[in-house]
Specification:
The chain has about 150 residues and is an alpha+beta fold. Helices cover about 20% and strands about 35% of the residues. It has helices spanning about 60-70, 90-100, and strands spanning about 20, 25-30, 35-40, 50-55, 80-85, 105-125, 135-145. The strands form two sheets. It has a five-stranded mixed sheet with strand order 3-6-7-5-4, with helices on one face. A two-stranded antiparallel sheet has the order 1-2. The chain is elongated. About 15% of the residues are buried.
């Protein structure tokens, strides 16, 4: 019996360098001639109690911002922490740190989702005016509600 992990599923055109043109056809590109530009992901509606976690900002600064929203004069009874891709682990860690600092007074509710991201390929040589190329990919996301339960 064949090992199911060794079998290739789907079509053979699953090339990581395959980009789609505006007409919908897939084109294989030489990565040396093009620069990959990653578009910003669509964000959920920004509320005052939403915190978007990334890997560029210092962990302690992000943790302090969340703590300030929960304890500060704004008096938020809940905050929503959002993490995308590599920042998922950091978002979980921040939520668990907040719960530990509150000595169990805070509760957590986590939801996961998949976010569709779009990448653009721009030619390195501006003289070669080619068709705009895009690639759609999926990335994991987490949304953690950190709240004080009703007493």
């Amino acid at each position: 019996m064949a090992d199911p992990r060794s079998q290739v599923s789907g079509s053979a055109s699953q090339n990581p360098l395959g980009f789609s043109t505006p007409e919908g056809s897939t084109v294989e590109m030489d990565p040396v001639e093009y620069t990959l530009r990653k578009r910003l992901p669509r964000k959920l509606p920004k509320r005052r109690n939403d915190v978007y976690i990334n890997m560029k900002t210092d962990f302690k600064a992000q943790l302090a911002r969340c703590q300030k929203l929960l304890d500060g004069g704004a008096g938020h009874k809940e905050i929503c922490i959002h993490g995308l891709g590599l920042a998922i682990n950091r978002a979980i860690n921040i939520a668990l740190q907040l719960q530990a600092f509150s000595q169990g007074a805070l509760q957590l509710a986590a939801n996961t989702s998949t976010v569709e991201l779009i990448d653009d390929l721009e030619p390195d040589d501006p003289d070669e005016a080619g068709e705009p190329l895009t690639r759609t990919r999926n990335n994991s996301a987490i949304h953690i509600k950190v709240f004080y339960p009703n007493a």
